[in-house]
Amino acid sequence: MTELWRLSAAQTANLIRLKQASATEVAEAALSRLAAVNPALNAVVDHNPEDVLAQAAAVDARIAAGASLGPLAGVPVTIKINIDQAGYATSNGLRSKAGLIATENNPVVDNFLRAGAVLLGRTNTPAFSARYFTDNRLHGATLNPRDPRLTPGGSSGGAAAATAAGIGCIGHGNDIGGSVRYPAYACGIHGLRPGLGRVATYNATGPDRSIGFQLMSVQGPLARTVQDVRLGFQAMAGRDTRDPWYFEAPAAPHDPRLAAFCAHPEGIDTAPEVEAALRDAAERLADAGWTVVELDAIPPLKEASRIMHLLWVADAPERIVAAAEAEGDPGAIFAMRGAVDWIGPVGLTEFGDTLTRRAALVREWAAFFETFPVLLMPPSSQLPFEVDADLKNGFAWLTEQQYFMAGPPAIGMPAMTVSTGLSGTAPVGVQILAGRGREEFCLAAGEAIADRGAPPAPIDPVSI
């Protein structure tokens, strides 16, 4: 029999439902896998085995009593350390918040529990969740299980590294500038950034977020199969009134079967391996029966990227930089000071004009998705970065490589990275965008692309 930790979430839930394995057996296997490989990765930085086994025993008790089961009953899931999970620190990678213990759950956690998931552990993030690299002075660096010379991505680098290594079936992450999509890309798995408001979120441990964060930060799943990404999203997307942006999208009206792709919008240069992976994904989608059209231009990405950075830092630049300096984390100081310096001074008029311009971009992108329901484009201009490449090359260099990551959050529509293979030890893949409320279009296209991969599949759990 296949080792339990190797199974997907769908396979695990089905095994438990058919009583071919107990939730406790699955939890024990997950904990053993965590103990075996996490010391080399530092992906999970907080966990309580007794709590994990108690959750699993509760699932088994419901099964024994004949109670109805959630779709993720007994499935091991990890939670990122920047959202509230009762009894655990919401540290966000900060020494100053190491003792900030949550007394209630974020809606994401509650929704996973309602779905029957077993919460396996809490995954690492950079300080302030502010880099495409995962390192902080509280817990240290997380390594990429594909190649420790490469970043595991950020800020959900712990979630991606854990999931790629078989520590849990689904990893929770969040994304304001690529923090789900880039780690999934860097670790060779899949990650969905839902659209604005599709997954409710709220941390009682902190004040309400600034308007920029409210418009762009979302919660999303990472997994080794697209089917598991879908299961994770469906579980996370449960209704919760604590998030005023939350909305339930109507069912997708049809299977789109029409996609566009663009390799060099606005003259953005891409590495040959990155462009080859994009064209490979387009061919796979065409082989699956989709009509795929190559475009020379799409709505603005570079401007959207600048809007994303401006809304992130403009409402309190001095406070942002001061907080990073107080923490003393070199990566956080680089990221926050770099963004503030790159954007420059922002007055109230410019801030208002930016919000107005954002609305125009949303309109332009919405019209685009009326013509082309799905868009394929690169996740990044480059293969996954080497560790600390941002500190070596500078903030301006980083923004030029990451227009594909930083642009989509400004428009608030769903985006997904799908792993398609390896270039040497570096994962490659494609990014898929769709219109508002159309996460299912991303998932449908992603499944068609992933299902046509040539072995060896890059999404197999890494052997360490």
UniProtKB/TrEMBL annotation:
Residues 25-318 form the Amidase domain. It is an enzyme of class 3 (hydrolase). GO terms for molecular function: amidase activity. PANTHER family: GLUTAMYL-TRNA(GLN) AMIDOTRANSFERASE SUBUNIT A, MITOCHONDRIAL, TRANSAMIDASE. It comes from the Bacteria. This is Amidase. Its EC number is 3.5.1.4. Belongs to the amidase family. The keyword Hydrolase applies. Pfam families: Amidase (PF01425). InterPro entries: Amidase, Amidase_CS, Amidase_dom, AS_sf. Keywords: Hydrolase. It comes from Paenirhodobacter populi.
